[in-house]
Amino acid sequence: MCRPLPLLAALISLAAAPAHAQPAPPGVPAAAWLVYDRAAGQVLASANAGQRWEPASLTKLMTAYLVFEAVRDGRLGWQQVVAAPATVRRVGTEESRMYLQPGNRLSVRRLIEGLLIISANDAAVTLATAVDGGEAAFVARMNAAAARLGMTGTHFNNPSGIPGPTHYTTAEDLLRLTLAFDRDFPDVYAITRAPQFRYRAFHGQASNPLLAQDAAVDGFKTGHTEAAGYNIVISARQRRIGAAGQPRDLVAVLLGTPSKGDRARGAELLLDYAGSAFHLAEVFAAGQEIQRLRVPGSAEGEVGLGVEATQRMALAAGSAATLRVTLKDDADIFAPLPQGAVLGEVEAVQGEQVLARAPLITLQEATPAAWPLRFYDWVAVRLARWIG
């Protein structure tokens, strides 16, 4: 039977601050939204995050992801020159574009810049053709990638974001795609933080207005159609609230805001909320001793217990977590024990809520004692089991 044991007094200080209720999120002018803390790996707040919505030009994030994959896999090169296909003629005058004409030749790198900085639909069409020879095959690849990334609420019909009844995504799926970029292609942010784009006579400002308003913002993508409203995925790095605030790495997704101004204000509201209503806390620290435990039959007598991996969490401002340890039955513990042996579990808790848990492991090896002491401990352990 496992039994909870008290923690060392030094660790009880982790919970010295009184718990505070999480402040209510701000009124965000969006049909669906979420805000995420990268360091904690947590969605801090959300509304309708699983609701299907037209992505508009946020579609181009998947288009870009597949281009980055093609470059990584050697199917394309950044400096490879490709020709704009005849299908760029279909890009309407009301659509975002970099004014490509059929046969225009330019590098994949320039096309991806036009795609992400000014949201050029003609760049999307050209890149889809460069990757797969045509849009139909590329769209199939988009949907296969969405399934692979766990974007179960997403379906694409085109690489640009032209609306349609079966072209949709969700806020939580867009977060999954953003985190896939973080993991696989973080150099994308060197592109999405650019404030402007030029191609021949064309000069356009970045479609992301927060780049000019918030120095912490390094992308990611905007989108708009009449049906979708104004959408945005925002990435912010080392963002602080006030000079003494914690630096935070955040992602915010907003879908269906009614105007450009509402989109920008809503994104700032969510970033501010994440920075002011929560703080990052290291609930588990790798290698830090949480408790000492006597190990019968060991030369050391006792060993320190801790966790293998550090884990940080975003907690409500002013609150803290307590640690609760549960150990294996003493009768199951006897030297020798290797470093890293699992002897129980530690939980980070607030009240009755378990926030996180991790295996509790030996931080040092427990080596066998000399035979008289080892034999004495062996007898004592079995007597205790028999009596108990």
From TrEMBL:
One of the record's GO molecular function terms: serine-type D-Ala-D-Ala carboxypeptidase activity
Enzyme class: hydrolase
Peptidase S11 D-Ala-D-Ala carboxypeptidase A C-terminal domain sequence ranges: 278-368
EC number: 3.4.16.4
Pathway field: Cell wall biogenesis; peptidoglycan biosynthesis
InterPro entries hit by this protein: Beta-lactam/transpept-like, Peniciliin-bd_prot_C_sf, Peptidase_S11, Peptidase_S11_C, Peptidase_S11_C_sf, Peptidase_S11_N
TM stretches of this protein: none
Leader sequence residues: 1-21
Enzymatic reactions: Preferential cleavage: (Ac)2-L-Lys-D-Ala-|-D-Ala. Also transpeptidation of peptidyl-alanyl moieties that are N-acyl substituents of D-alanine
Sites where the protein binds substrate: 221
Keywords: Carboxypeptidase, Cell shape, Cell wall biogenesis/degradation, Hydrolase, Peptidoglycan synthesis, Protease, Signal
Enzyme active site: 57, 60, 119
Gene Ontology annotations of biological process type: cell wall organization; peptidoglycan biosynthetic process; proteolysis; regulation of cell shape
Family: Belongs to the peptidase S11 family.
Function statement: Removes C-terminal D-alanyl residues from sugar-peptide cell wall precursors.
Protein known as: serine-type D-Ala-D-Ala carboxypeptidase
Organism lineage: Bacteria, Pseudomonadati, Pseudomonadota, Alphaproteobacteria, Acetobacterales
